[in-house]
Amino acid sequence: MNLPNALTTVRIFLVPLLVVVLLTKFGGELILGVRKEYVGAAIFGLASLTDWLDGYLARRHRQITALGQMMDPIADKLLTSAAFISLVQLNVAPAWMVAVIIGRELAVTGLRSLASTRGRGFAASWLGKVKMVSQVTAILLLILGQEGQQPFLWLGQIALWVVLITALVSALDYYWAFATATTDSIPQAGECPADPERRKAV
Known about the structure:
By secondary structure, the chain is mainly α. The protein has seven helices and two strands, in the order H-E-E-H-H-H-H-H-H.
């Protein structure tokens, strides 16, 4: 296993640790003398850092593998979904917003998989990147504001709205790209898909 894939694996193992820290009631709300929201934010921040680092190292050292391409999005979805669901349990994130965000992630993942089976691929759009940055920001702020600490809580709620809006708009963008690519790949009237020479002639 190369280093990028090892970092992805570390991110997956950090997910249950994050959930335990966020949802377990510790005596005095301290973990080794540190407030649990700070520990939770540190774990999530570290996991998010590995998300950037594994991709950077894989590209820089040309260590992109099929295993890494499969594991990376799974690790991302596990991390963000676990964090959001934990925040719903802590009553700092509305359940309906989290359901929409996670539903969007699953829908886009399914759309990408379907496109892949048809030999199509979609690069991450700038909207998707904005969504990802705002998502990490919102989760960090809401973890820090889980006990009502301001300004973390209201800043996190604002960031969550940004996540929701960019998630929906980028999902429509991906769907439009998929629909356009699919339409372009459908043979036009009079074309025979089984006869490539005839298609060239047309």
